[in-house]
Structure formats: C-alpha cells, structure tokens
User: What shape does this take?
Amino acid sequence: MRRSVLILFCLVLAGVAEGLGVASLLPLITLIGEDGGGSKGAKVADVLSTVGLQPTIGVFLAILVIGMALKATLSLVALHQVGRAVADVAVKMRLQLIDALLAARWSYYVRQPVGRFSNALGGEANQAGETYNQAAQLVADLIQVATYVTIVALFSWKLALLSLAVGLLMVLTLNRFVTIAKRTARKQNRHVKRMIGGLTDLLVGIKPMKAMGRHARFQSLFERDAETIRRAQRKQSFARHANKTLQEPILAICLAAGIYAALVLGSAPPGEVLVMSVLLVRTVTTIGKAQQGLQALRIAEAGFVAVTETIELARRARESLHPGATPSFERAVAFRDVSFAYDREPVIENASFEVPKGLVTTITGGSGAGKTTTVDLLLGLHEPTAGEILIDGAPLAGLDLVAWRRMTGYVPQELILFHDTLLSNVTLGQPEFTREDVERALEAAGAADFVAKLPEGVETIVGERGARLSGGQRQRIAIARALIHRPQLLILDEATTALDPDTEANIVRNVMDLARSTGLTVLAISHQPAWARAADHVVHLAEGRVVKVDSHAA
Ligand SMILES: Nc1ncnc2c1ncn2[C@@H]1O[C@H](COP(=O)(O)OP(=O)(O)OP(=O)(O)O)[C@@H](O)[C@H]1O
Assistant: This one.
C-alpha cells in the first residue's frame, strides 16, 4: 500500500515536471504561429514572470530540459518500485495459493485436476504480477493525458475540449479491440489450464497408456485445445495491433477535418492552426497510448483473475482445524454408530467397532465396502454425518485434530514417493530427524537390508514416484516414513495388497514383530487374508456396515 502511494506520488510529480517542461515550449511554438498564437503563448510567459523568471528563450529551454530530466528521474524511481511490486505481487499470490492449497480439506484435492495448480503457480502468477505493472503504466498514461489536457487548456480551452472529444471518439471506436483482447486472453488462459491439467493427469498415468499403445489418441485431445489457444492468440494479437494502428487514421481524419474547417471554412491564421494541430495530435496520441495501456492491462488481468479465483476456491475449501483438547491414546479408538455419505447415498452406516491400544486390528471387506472411508473418518479427513469417533472416550470432533494426526503413521493404498533421495522420502524433508532416526525407521520397516545394498544407501535417488525401486521396496520406505516420528497408531491402508504373497507375508511379520515389541497399535485395512490371519481383531465391513467382529486376542 505504502509503495503504491509512493509510486502514485512519483508519477504525479513526473507528470507535473513534464507539464512544466512542455508548457515552457508553448511561448516558443507560438512564435511559429506569429499571427495570434503569440498572445496565448504569452500567458505562459506571464505565469513565469509572476514566479520571478525572465521569459527568455534560454529560460524556456532550461525549464524544458530540467522538467524532462526531473520527469525521467521520477519515472525511473516509480518504475523501479513498480518492478519490485510486480515481483512481490507474483510471489505473494504464489504463497497465498500454496497456503490455501495446503490448508484445504482432503475432499477438495480429490475434485481438482492438479495441473490447474501448476499453471496458477507458474504462468498465471507471473501474469498477475504483470497486471500491477500494466495498472501502474495506465496510471502514468492517464496522468500524462491530464498534463497535456491542462497545458492545452492553458493555450485554449476550446482546443482542450476538442482534443478530449477526438480522444473519446477514438477510444469508443476502438474499445471493441480492448474487449476482444480481454476475452481472448481469458479464453487462452482457460484452455492452457485445461491442457496442463490434462497433460499432468496423463503423465501421472502414462505407463499403461504406453504399454497398451494408446497414448497417441490423447494427442488429438490436446490438439483441440492447442487449436483454440492458437485462434485466441491470433485474435488477441490482431486486436492489439488494430488498436494501435487504427488510432493514427482516426486521428488523421479528425485532424484533416479540423484543419479544413479552420483554414478553408473558418479562414483561421495558418500559424495558429499549425500550433493547435501540434497540440491536438500530442494530446490525442497520449489518450491513444492510455487506451493501449488499458488493453495490455485487460490481457494481463486474465492471469490475475484466474489465480485469484483458484486461491478463493481453495480458501473456501479450508479445513476447519479448530483448537481442541490434546488427545490421549491409552485405551482405544472407537467408532460409535458412525454414518457417512459423500453425496446422498450412505457409504458408512451405523458402524460401531474398537481399535484397542497395543493390538493389531484389521478392517476387511470387499471392494467398495467403505474401508478407506473408515480410515479417512478416523483421521478426521471427513466428518461423520452421524455418530461419533472417540479417542479414549473423547469425541474426535472436540480434539486437536493436527495433534491427533501427528500421533498416527499412515501408509496409503496408492503411495507416492518423491523424486528425491531415499533419506528425504523417509524424513519428508523435516530437518529434526537425524540419520539415526532414519536408520531406526528403516530397520523397523524391514527396509534396512535392501537399503544397505544400494551403492548410495539412503542417498539413492528413488526416481519419479519411486520408479527405481520395486513395489515391495517402495512400500517399506513408505512404512519407514510412517514410523520415523514414533507414532502411537500405525494405519496401513491396503499397503501390501499389490505385493506378492511372500513379500506381503514378510511385511506383515515385520509389522507384527514391531507391534509386539514396542506396543505400537496397528490398524491394517486389507481384503487379503494375510492381515486378517495375523490380527488380534478383525472388523468385517460389507456395504458400509460392520457385519462381524472377530477377536483372536489372547
Ligand atoms: N471422494 C469420493 N466421492 C464420492 N464417492 C466416493 C469417494 N471415495 C469413495 N467413494 C465411494 O465410497 C464407497 C466406499 O469407498 P472406499 O474407498 O471407502 O471403499 P474400500 O472398501 O476402501 O474399497 P477398495 O477395497 O476397493 O479400495 C465406494 O462406493 C466409492 O465409490
């Protein structure tokens, strides 16, 4: 805000300096219009003499040079500040977007194409910064218009009105090119966003497409977007050039009509007509420049609008992480008559079961039975539509949710490793974890042996989404990641389903040993028999209902 005021202040002063400089030219140019113009230029000389300056040619020229130098200096200060503001605006919007995204509810991500965010963080945020630049340029142009109109009014108020009228005529005639530029910029942004969103999705799932030779088909989908972008870009470019180049003939027509009327019909003195023509052209050209500035602003604004909308949508999906009591987990987690629906159809209905502390519980059931949803509810990623989830008897809704999540280790069904070192994948970049912590977690997850055999050990880069590791190795790394912060409850959501029975049995044995030796509570979601056989408790789900609970606990 303070910077904007400083910029405005500098621009206004620059306008005044330019005005003074140009005004000092008036007496000079009126000399050219020896017949009649001299008296009007003399007004400026009068003004100068009232402030103690001799109206000599030397003084006029000195004022012109000083005025222009001052204008240049002040403009430079303003533009330097504008440059800083442009970078600040882009960075601020990026940070706001990241902040809003990270604070959003889980259900929000599920409904968004991720590419949308990459685009907002990249091109659109830059465009948003550029909006500030164009807005400042427009303000500078408008100040210049005001300066010229004032100077012309000093010379002749009728000429000032005429300049404004011609300028307005030009603005109204060419305004549709500004509208076209704005429309095409928004269209272009929309399709670029769609293209990036689609491509990101495609690249995430490229392996099966390649494997089945079906990737080429997608080319045509992107071609359609690319074609729309091409057309929008061409139209926008035409609108920009048309706005610029058509200003001259409009001005020429008005000027020719004016000169004809003044010289032939009105028999005005040619000198005065010449001076008036010079002033009119200068003023109207400045108005034209302001209109081009408005057009550039409209184009850049498309990015600003797009990022603002994305931030707004993410903010509306903000997760309500109300402060609450610190959870204690000494006895059990319990679902009491919990129901939940994503849309209208209930996915979980009156579910009641317990996950006792220190034991291994498995939730089993067919595909779509609601197992993942149950875990999501337990982690507070969704809120039950009815019933309660209790941690040691305390309703989860009244607890500090982040503190509760920090007490859990979570290994999802579709785990993603980052394209980074094995170490960073386990610590998730959190510097408080030492190498000993990493080694302990790898050991506990049964990953220490294979990591030790890698030439670069924990410094091995795992490749895009962990592609340089086998499925079982990736899963062990994900378990190590879930164990490094010594959670009290380890949740494995189909974490071993994709593995061969031997690897799965190995991981099950490992986790069971860990649970027995450390008292870690484990909740394993699986429709495979391996976990059901090993667990102390088995909760059977079918169509969102708990149909049976088996207890093998000693
Ligand atoms: N984000 C969502 N929006 C709408 N419906 C959803 C969403 N996620 C899951 N569902 C629906 O909820 C039901 C339960 O899904 P859930 O993923 O919990 O089942 P699951 O038992 O884990 O299945 P699987 O073993 O196949 O992973 C399914 O009918 C599914 O279509």
The chain has a mean pLDDT of 85. The chain has 19 helices and ten strands. The domain at 2-316 is CATH 1.20.1560.10 (ABC transporter transmembrane region fold).
